[in-house]
Amino acid sequence: MSTSAADLNLPCADGDFYAFEQMLTAKEQDRLAEVRDFLAREVRPIAVDCWNRGEFPMELIPKLADIDLVSPVRRQGHSNLFAGLMHAEVTRADASISTFMGVHDGLFTGSIETLASQEQKDAWLPDIYSLKKIGAFGLTEPLGGSDVAGGTRTTARRDGGSWILNGAKRWIGNATFSDWVVIYARDIEDNQVKGFLVDTGLEGFSAARIENKIALRTVQNADITLDNVVVPDFCKLAHANSFRDVNKVLKVTRLGVAWQAVGQQLAAFDVARRYAVERHQFGRPLASFQLVQNQLVQILGNAVSSMGMMVRLSQLEDAGEAKDEQSALAKAFTTARMRESVALGRNLLGGNGIVTDFEMAKIFADAEAIYSYEGTHEINTLVTGRAITGISAIV
User: Fold this and answer.
1) What helix, strand, coil percent values describe the chain, rounded to 5?
2) In Å, how far are 262, 279, 315, 316 from 321, measured between CA atoms?
3) Mean pLDDT calculated for residue range 213-230
4) Burial category of 290 from C-beta neighbours within 10 Å (exposed 0-12, middle 13-18, buried 19 and up)
5) Cα 214 to Cα 166: distance, rounded to the nearest angstrom
6) Which of 46, 151, 326, 332 is the most exposed place for a label (fewest CB within 10 A)?
7) Which residues pair with 229 in a beta bridge?
8) Which of 377, 379, 369, 378 is nearest to 102 (CA)?
9) Given CA atoms 18, 324, 99, 217 in this order, what sign does their dihedral have?
10) Which residues contact 202 (CB under 8 A, 6 or more apart)?
């Protein structure tokens, strides 16, 4: 974030009101500062323009490769707390770029790291980590969202030394320009969902960009069609043999989305606080009015409570003790607080809150996508409810 003279005299201008970052090691704090400087220099200045045009800044990919953000925990040995705070910072700069990274690093790379054999990892991960190969994650379908676990319509059929895939996927981020997509399809022989690394250049594979979005406009979501796509047996993920295996990936990536909700609230706080300090009405700064301070404090409180939940959940993840229902509650809670926060921020800016010139309109709109993906608020609530009652109310 940029700074002004007003920032320098404020102890908590960065929104980290309870100093959670001090829980990181000194090395991690330095690394987070490096990433934050990169985002302020390379991402935030272009974010609104890319969003307005609905275009992805392809020139940014080599720079993202140079800053080396992929797989901070498994490959680089950082804590889950560092990985979460870093993801929040990327979101704070631009939710679309954090979604790009969440798809490539969390969903796609996570699928390979979690479900591939060692031989497959050795063959694929070097190019994935270096962003020489961009990945996407194909699970959601045109007729299947919350019910995709039991309702996957895309099929896989074994044919000698290959698999033949048929079906369709929807809302697949990065898919218009990705090199590879992990496709989850139902094996017609045993009715189990399995995973496949699909080269987007294969015959029968096509991806059409989804137009007219009001959120994450920079992200290139696509409708994918698979028409008798032949995939070598080596590209069937060795340990992706049921939807329970898919859930091993989703449990972790759900944490990433909850951290996005933290970052989006911090972005709203940044813009709203600066606007309140610098904008004058009735001859005084907006920040001098009690109701304005009330809104700023509510945004901050939402962000800090969300961050506190995520700090503890990251610790549980580091200890190998985090549970699916804890991820579900985190996603439901933090995105609900995010929705409140961005609405307060948009309101505080008045008419200027509905044009992207002042950033808040983009922050407000992007929050709607974060609220919905990686499990809706309702489904994550019911997953948590099942855990505390022992009774499933999902169907």
Assistant:
1) 55, 15, 30
2) 22, 47, 9, 5
3) 97
4) exposed
5) 30
6) 151
7) 165
8) 369
9) negative
10) 229, 230, 231
| 8 A C-beta contact, residue 100 and residue 137 | no
pLDDT interval class at 253 (50, 70, 90): confident
Strand partners, 230: 164
Mean pLDDT for 98-125 is 96
Inform me whether the pLDDT recorded for 13 exceeds 90.
no
From the list 267, 282, 195, 188, the residue with the least C-alpha distance to 231 is: 195
**167 φ, ψ to 5°?**
145, -160
Cα separation, 338 vs 206, whole angstroms: 35
Q: Which uninterrupted H or E stretch holds 166? A: strand 162-173
**Mutual angle of helices 80-93 and 290-318, in 10-degree steps:** 140
Above 90 in pLDDT, residue 15? no
Report how far residue 57's alpha carbon sits from residue 272's, in angstroms, rounded to the nearest whole number. 26
pLDDT computed for residue 10 by the predictor: 60
Residues 6 or more apart whose Cβ sits within 8 Å of residue 66: none
The CA distance from 35 to 74, in Å, is 18
Which one-letter DSSP state was computed for residue 144?
B
Q: What's the count of helices (H) and strands (E) in the chain, helices before strands? A: 14, 9
Tokens (6 digits) for 356: 């992207």
> Quick check: 274 and 4 in contact, CB under 8 A?
yes
> Distance between CA atoms of 29 and 82, rounded to whole angstroms?
8
Task: Give 6: exposed, middle or buried? Use CB within 10 Å, 0-12, 13-18, 19+.
Answer: middle
* Percent of the chain residues topping a pLDDT of 90: 89
| Residue corresponding to tokens 């993906």 | 373
Note the pLDDT of residue 9: 59
Both tokens of 299, joined, read: 């945004």
Beta strands 205-209 and 221-232: pairing type? antiparallel
**Secondary structure in 3-state letters for 93-141:** HCHHHHHHHHHHHHHHHHHHHHHCCHHHHHHHHHHHHCCCCCEEEECCE
Question: In this model, does residue 2 exceed pLDDT 90?
Answer: no
Q: Are 177 and 134 in contact (CB under 8 A)?
A: yes
pLDDT at 213: 96
Tokens standing for residue 216: 């994450």
Non-local (6+) Cβ contacts of 12 within 8 A are none
